[in-house]
Amino acid sequence: MTAAKPLPAAAVLWTLLNLQMRNAFARLSLSRQFMLLSFPILLSGTLVVGWWIGEQVQDSVVHRMGGVTALYVGSFIAPHVQSLVDKDDLSERDRQALRSDLANTPLGQKIVALKIWRKDGYVLFSGDASMSGRKFPIGEGLADALAGNIFSEISERSEEEQAQHGQPMQRLIETYTPIHADRTGGVIAAAEFYVKPDDVDREAAAAQRRGWLLVAGAMLTMYMLLFVVVRKGSRTIIDQQGQLSDKLNQLTQVNQQNMQLQERVMRAAERATAVHEDLLQRISADIHDGPGQDLGFALMQLKNMDDACATHNTMAQAPWAKGLGPACIAVQSALTDLRAISADLDLPDIGRLALTDIAMRVVRDFQVKTGCQIALSTSIAAVAATFRVKVTLYRLLQESLANAYRHAQCRDCRVSLTGGDDALTLEISDRGPGFDEQTALAKGRFGLHGMRQRAEVLGGTFDLISEPAVGTTIRVRLPLGSTGRDHG
């Protein structure tokens, strides 16, 4: 591979200068950008329109003055060529009269060159004697004149054309005019003459100046009107940009405040979860150490009394002795229930467990407690989760399985735990009798309310689908983003 050639210093400087100019132009207001861009465009348009109008004015002046001159020329030529009505050529007397008029009249002195053409392109008369008696092809101007029209234009000829047509000057007004017969009015010949363009140039220049001034004034007026409109729009845009910037700053501040409030809410929710679980543990400990111990002591005393009655016949005959057995059973049942409640309230050490291990432990403990079989499937990446997410998963799964056991006897109960780096999805389903969600909520089912609140406080979702005779499905989605991951 060949090494790339470095750019020349001039190209680099030009690129940098171009970028700076673009940046400087972009920083200008809309009105100033309009001034910089529209002025050369309007100036170019003014020059083009002015040039076109000048050309049209010049052609108009040339045609007008050529037509007027042609009438005068035709008036002094016509009397000397009337013989062409009956003849094909001019007499020597007519040629002498034409030379005399060209030399002695003021109009003739203004004519630089003169030719009189016959209809077939034959030169009947010419100021240049060498041109007389020759025949040439009929050109455009001569054809118009022989057709009865006046043709006039500014003629700029080369030296060869000057020599061919007898023109002594490079720039002249070339005019062709028909010569009519006095009696019939028909065209009997055509006159070609050249005059100096001095008068035409002066009048055309004056007309062109007036046209240029008119065009420039109109363009300047339109430019100023457009500038006023654009400037007003530019000010409106600048004001709106300022207002939008202020609104954006306010929105940014509000967004930052909302983010701070959200973080505070999340921290408060995490503290509330920890406080709530700590309270449950304290209640569990108080139940176990207080009423639990008292009931255990009472049960022990009742059993001692029952044993004493069994060994003493006199005590067994007492009326109160017959209630010792049922009392022992009742106290034993109450103690069992109280210990179960205490065990449910107490949260095990799940802080170091993975999400999959937490789900397996809840299902295993539930199966040991109830004897029901739960189908558990997990498919989740090994991601770190906050203590709140772990507690929420534990409590949601614990409450859902308790409801499935209470209302559906865990019939075909299945637990699915899936997720990735962003979210965790927990689904518990059974084939129980189902129920109506609105009716259940109206009856004050605090378990459903609690589960929904636990999910939503983490920014998750809680969906309950229950159909009579079909079963119930609970689907919970918990985020594992900034609110669901451990930090550090």
Keywords:
single chain; 14 helices; five-stranded mixed sheet; alpha+beta; 3 domains; 488 residues; Beta-Lactamase; rod-shaped; Heat Shock Protein 90
What does this structure look like?
The structure is a single chain. The chain is an alpha+beta fold and 488 residues long. The chain folds into three domains: 14-276, PAS domain (Beta-Lactamase, 2-Layer Sandwich), CATH 3.30.450; 290-347; 351-488, 2-Layer Sandwich (Heat Shock Protein 90). Helix content is 60%, strand content 15%. It is built from 14 helices and ten strands. The protein has helices at 9-27, 30-77, 92-104, 106-110, 140-146, 159-165, 198-289, 291-311, 313-316, 324-345, 355-370, 387-408, 437-442, 446-457, and strands at residues 111-117, 123-126, 151-156, 171-180, 187-195, 375-380, 414-419, 423-430, 461-467, 471-479. Strands 2-1-5-4-3 form a five-stranded antiparallel β-sheet. A five-stranded mixed β-sheet has the order 6-7-8-10-9. The longest helix has 92 residues, at 198-289. The chain is rod-shaped and about 190 Å long. The two termini are 49 Å apart. The mean pLDDT is 76.
Q: Topology as H/E string? A: HHHHEEHEHEEHHHHHEHEEHHEE
Instruction: Give the strand order, joined by hyphens, for the main sheet.
Output: 2-1-5-4-3
Q: Unreliable segments (pLDDT under 50, ≥5 consecutive)?
A: none
**Helix count, DSSP H or I runs of 4 or more residues:** 14
Helix content: 55-70%
CATH superfamily of the largest domain: PAS domain
Q: How many E strands?
A: 10
Report the sheet-strand fraction: 5-15%
**What is CATH's topology name of the largest domain?**
Beta-Lactamase
Q: Identify the CATH class of the largest domain.
A: Alpha Beta
* Rg, Å, rounded: 58 Å
Indicate the mean pLDDT: 76
Number of self-contained structural domains: 3
Q: Write down the overall geometry.
A: rod-shaped
Structural class: alpha+beta
What is the CATH architecture term of the largest domain?
A: 2-Layer Sandwich
* Amino-to-carboxy terminus distance: 49 Å
Mind summarizing the main beta sheet? 5 strands, antiparallel
